[in-house]
Design goal:
Blueprint (H helix, E strand, L loop, with lengths): L1 H28 L3 H13 L11 H48 L5 E4 L3 H12 L4 E5 L2 H10 L3 E3 L5 H6 L7 E4 L4 H14 L4 E5 L5 H8 L3 E3 L1 H14 L1 H11 L7 E6 L16 H5 L2 E6 L5 E3 L12 E6 L1 H11 L5 H5 L1
Parallel strand pairs: 1-2, 1-4, 2-3, 4-5, 5-6
Antiparallel strand pairs: 7-10, 8-9, 8-10
Length: about 350
């Protein structure tokens, strides 16, 4: 915008010089408008052509002042435009360095490959949840959108190891491969898995048969947006209230009710205790919807006698503030009953 303003000012200055010079020669020398304009142009541009007609004493004085004034205005125009361009380049360089430092500081973060319709939605959800993440994108138009949204990004091809390394793949928590090409998602998965064997990789699959290949390449989970969308549409017709409930607790539009997963660590005090002794329901009013065992077994609606073991992932439903309390208490050295009371 600043550059456009300076260009507009430059245009007005040049136009004013042309009009002023043309009118000056017309009134001083009595020439036609075309001859006066021609003389003004060769005087301002200093091309060195001869005079149209012999100049009078007043005409020569006018020409001297026109040349001096033109040089002054041209210097002003060039200076302003150059300063604007240089300042813009400096801001761009400094902004790039700041962005690189921001990305380098990330640890245990998420890497999002692709900023299309799905990728941009994921990024905005991450932003809402204050999840540390970085986007990898090579399309310049989409990079502009990322900058407008204010998200950290790495410009480059996510299928290349060097780009993944710049995004901090070796110290990342998870990677989402959400570009449109299944082949690219396959390359991303292979590269990311080789660079970080412990990385959790979620990959998008569009074509039939791509899921098996992506899982073989090292993806922990593969999601087909089209199949998920179709299944959701079926459920929205057959079980609309169930879909509304899932949206309520999963999309987190309503802060009073949320679904969260809590991992039981080795130092969790209620590890090895039955669910009824954990105080999760009694003291915090939370509902343990399911427990995913370390073996992968999923126990739905666990009984009060179900043992809580190391590595268990508790799927808990309840109010946000109580879920946050549970997350803190899971890492504490006291039982829930002791802390809440």
């Amino acid at each position: 915008m600043v550059l456009l303003r300076h260009l507009a000012i430059a245009f007005l200055i040049i136009l004013s010089l042309l009009i002023g010079g043309t009118l000056g020669y017309k009134f001083i020398e009595g020439w036609s408008l075309l001859d006066s304009l021609y003389m003004t142009v060769i005087t301002i541009t200093t091309v060195g052509y001869g005079e149209v007609y012999h100049l009078s004493r007043q005409g020569r004085i006018f020409t001297v002042f026109l040349i001096l004034f033109s040089f002054g205005m041209m210097a002003y125009i060039v200076g302003n435009i150059s300063q604007t361009i240089i300042a813009g380049q400096l801001r761009k360089i400094l902004g790039r360095r700041k962005l690189e430092k921001r990305v380098k500081k990330l640890k245990n973060h998420f890497i999002l490959c692709g900023y299309g319709r799905i990728g941009s939605f994921i990024a905005k959800e991450f932003g809402r949840e204050n999840v540390p993440f970085v986007v990898i994108e090579k399309d310049l138009e989409r990079i502009k959108l990322i900058e407008e949204d204010g998200f950290p990004y790495v410009e480059g091809d996510a299928t290349e190891d060097e780009t993944l390394i710049r995004a901090g793949v070796e110290k990342a928590k998870a990677l989402i491969a959400s570009v449109r090409s299944d082949a690219d998602n396959l390359y991303i998965t292979l590269s990311a898995r080789s660079l970080n064997p412990n990385l959790y990789i979620l990959s998008r699959a569009d074509e039939e048969g791509a899921e098996r290949k992506l899982l073989s390449a090292g993806a922990n989970r593969v999601v087909s947006p089209y199949l998920m969308g179709a299944a959701r549409m079926v459920n929205a017709v057959l079980r609309p209230n169930v879909v509304d409930f899932v949206d309520l607790v999963v999309q987190k539009r309503h802060l009073e009710l949320q679904l969260e997963e809590i991992t039981v660590e080795d130092d969790t005090r209620f590890r090895g205790k039955p669910l009824r002794e954990s105080g999760i329901r009694r003291d915090l009013g939370l509902i343990v919807v399911a427990i995913r065992k370390e073996s992968g077994e999923m126990i739905f609606n666990p009984s009060s006698e179900t043992l809580i073991e190391k590595g268990d992932i508790l799927i808990v439903l309840g109010e946000r503030k109580h879920l946050e309390m549970l997350e803190q208490l899971v890492r504490s050295a006291h039982m829930l009953g002791e802390r809440v009371s």
